[in-house]
C-alpha cells in the first residue's frame, strides 16, 4: 500500500494542525471510531479535535469514552461547555464518571447540574460501589398493569423520547411493585383494548439494586435480555440495566480476569495511551511475589542435592517436568476460572471438578509419560527413564488437581478466583512437582 492509499488518521491531521481536515474527518466517521482515535492520544491533544465536534455529536462521542478519558476531556473544557456536556449525559454514565473522578472534577460536575439531574445522580451514587444501582438507568417509561394497550402506547409516545430504551417496558402495580415486563412489539401488535396485565411477562428475571452489577450483566447474557429490571428491597421498580451497560460490565470483568491470570494488575484505559511506567508498575507487584515464591523450588533442589550428586542425569529432566506440570496446572486453573465467571461451575461442584480434572490430568500424564519414557531410554537408560515417566503421570495429575481447586477455594474465602492466576499455580506446581520427582527417583533408583 502506497502512502497515498493509506487511510488518513486523525492524529496525522492534528500533527499538521489541519483544522479543516480534522472537521471533515470527524464528520465522516461514526462516534465509536472518533472515540477510539481520541483514546489513543494524550489528553492535552485529544481535547483539540473534541472541541471541533458538532454539538449534536459530542455527547455521543463522549459517552463512548472510558471514565478516565472523559475526565481528561472535561478538565480541558470551559465552564459552560463542561456543564452542558455533563447535564446531557445519561444518569448512569454520569454517576460512574463522578464516582471515578477526582474530587475537584466531581464537585464541579455536581455543582453544574440542574436540581432534578443532581437528585437523580445522587440517588445512583447512594448505591454501593459495584452494585447494579450504580449502572442502571432511572430514565424509563413505566406502565401500570391496568392500562389498555392504546393508552400504554400514548404514554410511550409522550415519554419515550426521554427514556434510554423503549424496546422493553416495566409494568407495575399501584405500589410501584414490578409485575413484569412487556415488549414494545407486543403492544404494537395487540388489540388496542387489551389490558397490559394480560400481556405482561411475569417470569422476566430481575436484579436487586444492591446486588452485584457483574452478576446482573451475566444474567442478561444468559437470558438474552435487552434490558433487566432492577428493584429495591421491597420489589419496587427503580430502573433498568440496559444491554450496552451490561456489555461494558462483562468486558471490564473479563479484561480484569485476563490481566490477573497473567500475573498483572488491571490497567484501565487505552493500551496505546497508557504510559510505560504505569504498565511496569501494574506488572511488577505480581512478579515480585512470584520471584519470592519461586525460592521454594530452590529449597527443594537443595534438599535433594545429595541425590543429584549421585545421579546427575536426573537434573536433565527438571525443566521438562516443571514446565509440563506448570502448563497442566495453568490449563486447569484457566478452565475453572472461566467456568466460574460464566456460571458453569459453582462452589458446591468442588468434588465434581476435582474428580473430572484429576482424570484429565491422569490421561494427559499417561500420554506424555509414553513420550518421556522413549526419550529418556534413548538418552540416559531405562532406570532414569522409568522414574521420569512415573513422575510425569503423578505430576500431571497433581497439577490438574491444584489448578482446578485453587480458584474454587479462593471463591469460597471471598477472593477473586482470577487472583489465583496461572503463574501462581505454575510456581506452586514447580516446587511440589520436584518433590514428587525426586521422591519417585529415590524409590525407583534406590538412591
From TrEMBL:
Transmembrane stretches, start-end: 362-382, 388-410, 422-445
GO cellular component: plasma membrane
Origin superkingdom: Bacteria
Record-linked Pfam families: CBS (PF00571), MgtE (PF01769), MgtE_N (PF03448)
Membrane topology label: Multi-pass membrane protein
Quaternary context: Homodimer.
Function: Acts as a magnesium transporter.
UniProt cross-references to NCBIfam families, sorted A to Z: mgtE
Entry protein name: Magnesium transporter MgtE
